[in-house]
Design brief:
The chain is an alpha/beta fold. The chain has one domain: NAD(P)-binding Rossmann-like Domain (Rossmann fold), CATH 3.40.50.720. Helices cover 39% and strands 16% of the residues. The protein has seven helices and eight strands; from the N terminus they run βαβαβαβαβαβααββ. Strands 3-2-1-4-5-6-7-8 form an eight-stranded mixed sheet, with helices on both faces. The longest helix has 22 residues. It is globular and about 55 Å long. Bound molecules: NADP nicotinamide-adenine-dinucleotide phosphate. NADP nicotinamide-adenine-dinucleotide phosphate binds next to α1.
Length: 236
């Protein structure tokens, strides 16, 4: 660890967000673990050793994001790392081409997915940016997916794919905005991880899934506007 940081994580009561919160808190960082359900969030905190502060956050409710931002301004002050992790897949799970019914996710599913995976991250980032550390290295890590990579776009789950492509665009837009600062914005892909979203058949453990996140927070690699899996750069 380079220095003790304050790390804010969205959707951290289970899955990849929880594992990142756990590993970062247990390695000495101060973690603000957020979740949209108070009981689940507090329970998650109880299962982590180290300094973990719970705050309620539904990333799809702007008032909820505003309440978090007020709390950060009043009680925390500065954030060193923001991890936009909250996300889900609502599409029918189809992984083979079906030209007879290609966009099999409804517009309602598209909207729901974009609200959570993209607009939520946009809103949290916009409202937390004023509190990001401006004196030392700071990071925004967008938990994306290879399924959103344009260079190898595949079939099925169009809403999920498009939401992650949009999240990657947010990484690029912010990187351009903060070019001459010490704020580093990157997307990571955790790989296919055994969580409620990934399913039991996924090939990677939680520990493997958070490797890229933990690396960026602890080792501060000189990366800006990149797409990272583990310690490797992926094509967008
Ligand atoms: N697992 C994989 O194979 C994989 C692969 C590539 C990318 N990812 C990405 O990794 C991230 C985490 O996924 P995961 O696999 O850990 O999924 P997960 O186990 O299903 O966890 C998702 C987390 O997001 C939270 N969440 C859902 N809606 C929310 C909202 N409106 N506001 C705040 N939090 C909300 C959930 O909270 P509740 O418990 O309240 O629902 C939960 O804590 C996602 O962005 C996902 O797209 C995962």
């Amino acid at each position: 660890m380079n220095r003790r940081k304050t790390v804010l994580i969205t959707g951290a009561n289970r899955g990849i967000g929880f594992e990142a919160a756990k590993e970062l808190a247990e390695s000495g960082h101060r973690v603000i673990l957020t979740a949209r359900n108070k009981e689940k969030g507090i329970k998650a905190c109880e299962n982590i050793k180290g300094e973990v502060i719970f705050h309620l956050l539904d990333v799809t409710q702007s008032e909820s994001v505003e309440r978090l931002a007020k709390f950060i301004g009043k009680d925390i002050g500065t954030i060193d790392v923001l991890i936009n992790n909250a996300g889900s897949m609502f599409d029918p799970r189809r992984f083979e081409a079906n030209p007879a019914n290609p966009l099999d996710s409804s517009v309602a599913i598209l909207n729901q997915t974009l609200q959570l995976n993209f607009v939520g991250a946009y809103d949290v980032t916009k409202q937390i940016l004023p509190f990001m550390n401006k004196k030392e290295r700071a990071d925004i890590i967008n938990v994306s997916s290879g399924m959103g990579a344009l260079h190898e776009m595949g079939v099925g789950t169009p809403a999920y794919r498009i939401s992650k492509t949009a999240l990657n665009a947010l990484t690029k837009v912010l990187t351009a905005e903060f070019e001459n600062t010490d704020l580093h914005i990157n997307s990571i892909c955790p790989g296919w991880v055994r969580t409620d979203l990934g399913g039991v058949g996924a090939t990677r453990s939680l520990e493997e899934g958070v490797m890229g996140i933990v690396w960026i927070v602890n080792e501060e690699p000189e990366l800006r506007g990149q797409f990272i899996r583990d310690k490797e750069q992926l094509d967008f």
